[in-house]
Amino acid sequence: MGKLLTLEGLDGSGKQTQAGLLADALTKSGIACRRVSFPDYAQPSSVLVKMYLNGEFGTSPQAVNAYAASSFFAVDRFASYQKFWKDSYAAGELILADRYTTSNMVYQMPKLPRAEWDNFLQWLMDYEYKRLMLPKPDLTVFLDMPATASESLLEKRYSGDESKKDIHERNAGFQNDCREAALYTARKLGWVRVSCVEGSRLKTPQEIHEELLCAVRETGLLQTDKISNDLKGAF
């Protein structure tokens, strides 16, 4: 089997950018790397996700309970795995995922009372990793960005047009709750945390990339002498 490395973070935290930079660095080090991203909006499997995020079931994230919404995203992942990367993973390739089951932990768990968080995590991992038989991540890196910084970056992305935001993105309070859930889960499940800020300053994409490379190398997930030296030499 291959390895599954997942990048997680709030909306606007730069996951897509960092996934691209990391994939380039790994490829230059001779590591076969296949990128996947969720939700997979190009596929029909994402239809319920799009309806939910567009507000067709209610304009608040809480309009759809954590378990139902988690199922929307899980089915999209199942379809992607079965159709596009199951064989690559089975052949030993590294899969680099921009969001994964981890996003249900971040975005759905805050809908529940804190006393129910552990039960939700257990349910979700049983549902996706055992019932749906999706691969479990070998490493999750959380790109930690305060919700205020995330909101500012989203404003720039959409040029201040609120209508372009989904129901998660336009709810600043919910984004802050999601960060709390992410930090809780990171501690609980041993995610690697990479901070996207230094004091009040937002780090550059290259600075975050270098810390991400270092974090991946130090876990030993991809440890061989050549890979270790190449990644170390990347910065």
What does this structure look like?
There is one protein chain. This protein is an alpha/beta fold. The chain has a single domain, classed as Rossmann fold. 51% of the residues lie in helices and 13% in strands. The protein is built from nine helices and seven strands, in the order βαβααβααβααβββαα. The chain has helices spanning 15-28, 47-53, 66-90, 101-107, 117-131, 147-157, 172-189, 205-219, 225-233, and strands at 3-9, 33-37, 94-98, 139-144, 192-195, 197-198, 201-202. The strands form two sheets. A five-stranded parallel beta sheet has the order 2-3-1-4-5, with helices on both faces. β6 and β7 form a beta hairpin. It is globular and about 45 Å long. The two termini are 30 Å apart. Mean pLDDT is 90; it is low at 224-228.
> Could you tell me how far the N terminus lies from the C terminus, measured between alpha carbons in angstroms?
30 Å
| Uncertain parts | 224-228
Structural class: alpha/beta
Number of helices: 9
Determine the strand fraction and express it as a percent band: 5-15%
The tally of beta strands, per DSSP, is 7
* Average predicted local confidence, pLDDT: 90
